[in-house]
Amino acid sequence: MSLMNNLSTSMISSSSSPFLAPISFNSRTQSVTVPPKSISLVKCVSTPQEQQTAYKTKVSRNANIAKLQAGYLFPEVARRRAAHLLKYPNAQVISLGIGDTTEPIPDVITSAMAKRSHGLSTLEGYSGYGAEQGEKALRAALASTFYGNLGIEEDDIFVSDGAKCDISRLQVVFGSNVTMAVQDPSYPAYVDSSVIMGQTGQFQKDVEKYANIEYMRCTPENGFFPDLSTVARTDIIFFCSPNNPTGAAATRDQLTRLVKFAKDNGSIIVYDSAYALYISDDKPRSIFEIPGAKEVAIETASFSKYAGFTGVRLGWTVVPKQLLFSDGFPVAKDFNRIVCTCFNGASNISQAGGLACLSPEGFEAMQEVIGFYKENTKIIVETFNSLGFKVYGGQNAPYVWVHFPGRNSWDVFSEILEKTHIVTTPGSGFGPGGEGFVRVSAFGHRENVLEACRRFKQLYN
Ligand SMILES: Cc1ncc(COP(=O)(O)O)c(C=O)c1O
C-alpha cells in the first residue's frame, strides 16, 4: 500500500473525525443520514511536513502582501515574549505591551449578553442574520450617546465587529488608486492595510517608510500635531486622537486646522476615536464636534477599550451622508455595499452587550473600568517622571510614551524584557517617528502595574 493510501485509511479514519464520519441528523421531525465525505478530498491534511513544503501551487503570492515588513508589530512582540519565557520558564512576566484589556467586563453588560444568548435557544428569542448595518436600537443609542447634538443620525452609523476590521473595509472602499497620509508614529493597521491594498510602493529601508505614503511627523517638538504646511496633499488622511501610541489628544484648534486642510485639498479624514472616552479635559471626543467635518470625515470607534470587548468584538463607524466622492456619489453608499458584501453584521450577542454599555448603569460601569485604567496610567507616569524620564501621553489615553533619547527602541524593549521581565512595545514599531521611544500600556491588573513600576525603579534608579 502506498504511503498516501496508508495515510488515508489509517491516519484519517472516519471515526477520528466527527466531520468525516457519517452524520446522523436528529432533526425535530425526522432523522436523516448522509454519506461520509470522500476521504481523498482531505489527504493533504495528513501529508507529512516535507511533502507539504515540496509541493507548490501555481498561484503567485499577492505582491502587495509580500511588501509588508517582517510580522505585524503585535504578533512580533508576542513572539519575543514567548521566546523570553522559553529562556526563563519561571519568570513572572508582566505584559504592558500589546495593549489588550485585562479587567472583567461589568456584570450589567455580560448579563445582557447572557440573556440574549439564552434567548437564542428559544423560538421567540432566536434571530439569525440581522441588518448588516447593525440593530436599529443600538445605532440609535450610539447616535444619541456619542453624537447627541452633532447632527449625526442613526443611519449614518454602521455597527461593526471592531475598529480594525472597519479600517480594512474602508480601505476596500477606497481601492488601490488613492494616496494616503498617516501620523508618524501611528497604530500600524493604517499603513499595513494600505500596503495590502496596493496603495503604496515598496518599503524603503534607508528611511524605514513605504513609498507613496505621506508620514506626518508627530513629535514632542510639534506637540504631536503635524506641521500641515509641510504635509503633501493625499486623498485619505488617517488621524487617531487620542493617538495610539503617543497618547496625545488633538485640541479643538488643531482639529479645526485639520478639517480645513482636508477641505482645501478635497481629502477624506478617517478619524480613529477608539480612545475618545479616555479624554479627561475639554479636547474634542469626536471629529464631528468640528464644524464642517461631516463633509470631509469618517469616524471609527470601538467598545474594545471601554468595556473590555477586545474578545467580544464590537465597534462602529460613522459615514455621514454629507460625505461625497468627487463625482458626487455618497461614500456611505459604497461603504454600505462593502459591509453587505464583505461582512454580515456584528454578532447579535455582542450587540446586546453594546446596547447594555449604553444604558445608564452600563455607561457608568464602563466609565469605572476606564477610570481604573486611568489610575494605572497615573502610576506609570509618576514612576517614569520620578526616574527623570521625559514622559508623554497618559493624561487622555491608556498609553505612556517614554522617551529614551538616542537609543534604539527595540534595544530598550529588549533591555527592559531581559532585566525586568516586563513586555513593552518598541516605539519604532509604530513608524520611524517612534524611534527612541517605548510605549507602556496601562492595561493590566493593579498589582501587576505596581510590581512593574517597582521593577522599572530597580532598573533605572
Ligand atoms: C487606535 C486603534 N484603533 C483601532 C484599534 C482596534 O480596535 P478593535 O479592537 O475595535 O478592532 C486599536 C486597538 O488597539 C487601536 O489602538
UniProtKB/TrEMBL annotation:
- List the cofactors: pyridoxal 5'-phosphate
One family name in Pfam for this protein: Aminotran_1_2
Among Gene3D superfamilies, the record links this protein to: Aspartate Aminotransferase, domain 1 (3.90.1150.10), Type I PLP-dependent aspartate aminotransferase-like (Major domain) (3.40.640.10)
Look up keyword S-adenosyl-L-methionine and say if it applies: no
Q: Which parts of the sequence belong to the Aminotransferase class I/classII large domain?
A: 92-456
Q: Keyword Transferase: yes or no?
A: yes
What are the record keywords, sorted?
Aminotransferase, Pyridoxal phosphate, Transferase
Q: What is this protein called?
A: Aminotransferase class I/classII large domain-containing protein
Task: Please tell me the species this chain comes from.
Answer: Hibiscus sabdariffa
Its taxonomic placement starts with: Eukaryota, Viridiplantae, Streptophyta, Embryophyta, Tracheophyta
